[in-house]
Amino acid sequence: MPRVALAFSGGLDTTFCAVWLREERGLDVVTVTVDTGGLDDAGRSAIAARSAACGAERHVLADGRARVFDRFVTYLVKGNVLRGGVYPLCVGAERVVQAEEIARVAREIDAGAVAHGSTGAGNDGVRFDVAFAVRLPGVEIVTPIRDLGLMREASEAYLRERGIPVEARMRDYSFNVGLWGTTIGGRETHDAWAEPPAAAFRTTADPTTAPPAGEELILRFEQGIPVAIDGDRLAGVPLVERLNEVGSRHGVGRGIHVGDTILGIKGRLAFEAPAPLVLIRAHQEIEKLVLSPRQALWKQRLGDTWGSLLHEGLFDDPLARDVEAFLDRSQELVTGDVRVRLRQGRIEVVGARSPYSLLGAEGARYGETAGWTGEEARAFARLYGLSTVHAARRRRSEPEDTP
User: Quick one: which of 31, 166, 307, 397 is 20 to 30 A from 13 by CA?
Assistant: First the structure.
C-alpha cells in the first residue's frame, strides 16, 4: 500500500488522523514525532504506544530541540520578538523544524503523501502546507481534520467507536509544549472576557504562592546569544530548559495573547514561557547599553519583521535571510551580563554591564557632567529647537479664520 508520513503528537487530532488515514484512505501510516521540547521518556513512550494502538506501520522519533535553538531561538532573542508586545512565538519555529524532519522521513520511505492534523481555522495548517510545498514539491498534503471540518467531539466519537480511549484533558484543552514555551487553547481562550482557570497552567507555579523572596540570576550574553547562567556556561537547549525550570518556580512567564491569524481572523491563546520572557527582557537591557539610537530603532522594526515572517508561515521567504544578516551584524557588540530578579510572577531587570557600554562614554554622566561646556549646551539647545520655535511663532501670527 502507498505510505503517508504523518506529523504525530499523540493528541486527539493526530490520533484521529492516524486511524482515519489507514481505514478510510487505505494508507500505510508512518507517524513522525519531532521532539521540539517538553517531552520526557514517559511522554515519548506514551506517544509511541499511541501510534501502535492506531495501527501505524512505523513510528519515528526525532530530536529537533537543538535546531529550534540554533536556527530560531537565537534570532527570536536577537530580534526581541514579542508578538503584540507580549507573546514570544512559542510555536512557529517548531513547525518549521517538524516539517523539515517529516519531509526527510517522507523521502526516506518514498511516501506518496504527507499529513498533519491542523484545522482550517488556525495558523498551523498554513505553516505546514507552505513548509511542505517548499521541501516536497509535488507531494500530496492530506489534512483530514481540515478537509472534513470535524469538531473535537466528532473526532472523539470516531476513536471511541474503535476502542481508542480519549483522555479528558485532550477534549477540554489543546496544549502545545515546546522548548520556547507552552501554548494553551480551548474553552476560555475563545472568549476575550474569560480568564483561563489555574488548572489550565500546567508548568508554572501560581505567582501568588511562589516564594516571596524571589531569586536573582546573572545571565551572560555573547554577540546577542545567551550562553551562561550564574557563570555556568551551557549549550542552548539546557540553558533554556534550566531557565524554564527556575522561572516556573517563581510563577513567571504566564500570559494571554490576542492577535491576527494568517487567515485574517482574531485568535486568542494562553501561554507559559518563563525562559523566553526572561531572556528577551534581559537582552533588551544589554542592548540599551551598546546600541546607538538608530540601530535600536531599525533593529526592533526588522526583528518584528522576522518574527512576522516566522509566525505567518513565510520563514522560507528570502527576506528572512536578509533580515538575519542585519540582526547578526547588529549583535556584534551585544556582549555582557544582566542581573535579573524573578519574584512572584515578575521579571525585574536590576542591572547590566558590558565592555562595550555607551553609558558614561567620553566621561559624560547624565545630569552631572559632560564632555562639553555649558555655553555649547546652550547653543545646541537653541539650534535644536529652532524649527519648532519658528513653527509655533507662525501659528500664533496666523489669523484664526485662515482656511
Answer: 307
